[in-house]
Amino acid sequence: xxxxxxxxxxSQSLERGLAILRAFTPDRPALGISxxxxxxxxxxxxxxxxxATLASLGYLGQDHSTxxxxxxxxxxxxxxxxxxxxxxxxIAAPHLRxxxxxxxxxxxxxxxDDTDVILIDRVLGRPGxxxxxxxxxxxxxxxxxxxxxxGKALLAFLARPDLDRLLERIDLVPRGPRTLTDKSALxxxxxxxxxxxxxxxxxxxxxxxxxxxxxxxxxxxxxxxxVNVAIPWSPVAMSELADRLGxxxxxxxxxxAARVI
Amino acid sequence: xxxxxxxxSAVSGPPADAGVPGTATDGSRAGRNSEFVQxxxxxxxxxxxxxxxxxxxSLSEVARATGLTRAAARRFLLTLVKLGYVxxxxxxxxxxxxxxxxGYAYLSGLALPEVAAPHLEELVAKLHESSSISVLDxxxxxxxxxxxxxxxxxxxxxxxxxxxxxxxxxxxVLLAAMPEDRxxxxxxxxxxxxxxxxxxxxxxxxxxxxxxxxxxxxxIVDQELEEGLRAVAAPIRGGADxxxxxxxxxxxxxxxxxxxxxxxxxxxxxETVRQIEADLHAQGSR
Lengths: 261, 286
Hints:
Oligomer: heterodimer
Helix content of chain B: 40-55%
Strand order of the largest sheet of chain B: 6-5-4-9-8-7
Mean pLDDT of chain B: 82
Largest sheet of chain B: 6 strands, antiparallel
Strand order of the largest sheet of chain A: 5-4-3-8-7-6
Distance between the termini of chain A: 40 Å
Largest sheet of chain A: 6 strands, antiparallel
Number of helices of chain A: 8
């Protein structure tokens, strides 16, 4: 029934059905038949058949008062529950994309390698909102952990003896105008990261560059990665930035964590 | 916020194979409704054929798992490759992270996970046990929020995981919130599998248990889904986009006695429910 008639060997029905599911976004969670028909450039009757099929299969539910449709929990069966076994980077990618879309800023996913952070994925922010350092960074770049937001998010949750051993080998050289070069100041800051679940870098890595990061935990609770947004300096207070962006970073980290084994 | 939406499909009850990955709905369904696009059902079944233990599948394996011919399975797989949902490395196919978009759009469209997550984190920090929120989908519960503890031995459950409603504390809370006729239909149609020696599978006993849950406002389940796993759940009302949801705290039986579930964990859980409902109410009246 209704296979592609154009001889491409593809299924138009599947393509249309997925296009309907994709039309629902967090900004537009409820859509009516006319809106969907317009968006997909289909007739109302064709749209209705597809929507009725998706609804009878449980992928869509209808809001009784507005007659509009919403995604149903069954869409989680379409791969979502599978990807817990994928690599961290692949799991995180769409979340970094969303984080960047939501904030406009470059987002990064980093893991710790000894005293460094390695960026394993990144999504560049909107043009005009880069810091010059960002042009030289790429997937695989290393940053010193002690003066980067991702690094501090990763250091803060180490067991104290491990942290002490690591700090012995780190030379706290000034990299930016506000690098914490005093060990006790750094330890106090890491204590705050543990308390708030948010790490910041306020011109500690380079001048005019700030970042805010949150730890990503594995299912066993271990901090395995950190996610951040890099923000070019502006006259806004760092604490205000952290208040503003902390929740979305924590949410992003938790969303990634929920899918990591 | 718009009005309440049914937990289940509004058009008709979801197919009885809900939660069985990869099986296309019975063809007779199409016969009942001329509007039904059967090839869409079959194509989506190809996505569901992939699972945590079936990450990479050959064309024949997909055909076998879905009951499709090789030609049909191939057409759906190539469509999914073109759309970026499936990767093809030589003879094997696997899902690409792009499929996350669909589930993510569902979760992000819900107000409840965002409102509830910080409360769950507090609850988990206080009790040192895992907590989750789920909604009903057909005969199953589906996790929409989960906050694991930091313990090494946590149960491997992630968002999107589904379990049969009857054997879980959250499922019983959700069944208790159902209108009477829907619940009776559920009892008549659902399959009750004996997961452990303690699993209650008798419909008459389940009816009595669920009525008691409705009366007392919470459910405690002792090792009926998995040996060693205990959980207590309560309903969350006021999540306009999901209807009634359920929240639980689960713990290992060796750590938490049934008496402690009731006297220590339940009151804390109910306090968390009050906070979440207050936040939902505040958000709804904004």
